[in-house]
Amino acid sequence: MSSDPNVANDPIIQKISNNPKYQALKAERNKFGWTLAIIMLVVYYGYIALIAFDKEFLAQPIGTGVTTLGIPLGMGVIVFTIIITTIYVRRANSKYDAITAEILKEASK
Prior knowledge:
- The radius of gyration is 22 Å and the shape is elongated.
- It has one domain.
- It has five helices and no strands.
- It is 81% helix and 0% strand.
- The protein has helices at residues 5-8, 11-18, 20-53, 55-58, 70-107.
């Protein structure tokens, strides 16, 4: 909570903090956020580990051109980041925002 005594003693904030829906929302949102963060870290550091430990794999040419396997894999990491960000934003906008509106409605009664 805030160190501001006016915020800490605000009855609406207390209602929201004590609401079981808020507690469930907070837990679910944190779990989902950490899950996506861990997945992203695995993908990102997996790519970095390939750069560090298997340069020959990433240096394999694709077709007859000069493009190597590392380029599309690097682009894949970027696209993957956009995809998981989109997944989080969609869930936040659809599910989490609706629950937040319910919580606020209940707290303002």
